[in-house]
Specification:
Elements: H1 3-33, H2 74-78, H3 82-88, H4 128-131, H5 141-149, H6 151-154, H7 168-180
Helix pairs in contact: 3-7, 5-7
């Protein structure tokens, strides 16, 4: 066999290999998209809901979002579950630390948060929205609940990219637990 025949074989082999790779990738992506449920079953809803995103109707126009009223968190704090709150704090642990004297993460350390000023950690690079409230506003139970329900809605311009915790009892549990992470926890409502 001559040199040009070997080159032709290499080209054909490369094309066949590329086709096989594309076929395997197609099967793999179909399996990932369908969730590997098998038998052609499909989930009722795929993907993630983004808090604050407007849904579009079949005509393509955006439906107005229902206005959410702030929930009075104080009655819910009276029956808050600290164990459930400790579980809720795991949502925050990717960005925040919670131990006394702990380092800042993407977000500031949360020790002594409740009852402290907005922008309570010296040396942390807060957004201008938080800095503007330093010294004039404190993280009380209600303020923290309203913030955790939707950080961008409560305080536009802040850097927190967290979508929020919609369930008021989950927020109350988390707030009650965060209150324990302090040198002087505030008394919870009875």
């Amino acid at each position: 066999m001559n040199q040009s025949g070997l080159e032709l074989n290499k080209i054909v082999a490369a094309v066949l290999l590329a086709g096989i790779i594309a076929l395997v990738a197609s099967f793999a992506s179909d399996g990932l998209y369908q969730g590997g449920s098998g038998h052609g079953e499909k989930d009722a809803k795929r993907g993630y809901t983004i808090a604050g995103a407007e849904s579009a109707d079949s005509a393509g126009s955006a439906a107005p979002a229902a206005e959410e009223k702030p929930v009075d968190i104080l009655p819910l704090l009276a029956g808050a579950d600290l164990t459930a709150g400790e579980a809720q704090v795991k949502k925050c642990a990717a960005c925040h630390t919670f131990d006394k004297g702990g380092k800042n993460g993407v977000g500031p350390n949360q020790w002594n948060l409740i009852g402290s000023d907005f922008g309570h950690v010296a040396g942390y690079a807060y957004s201008d929205a938080i800095k503007a409230l330093h010294g004039s506003k404190k993280w009380g139970f209600q303020e923290l609940s309203d913030f955790l329900a939707g950080p961008k809605k409560y305080l536009p311009g802040n850097k927190m990219s967290f979508a929020g915790i919609k369930n008021p009892q989950d927020r109350a549990n988390l707030i009650a637990y965060l209150n324990t992470l302090s040198d002087k926890p505030l008394p919870l409502p009875k």
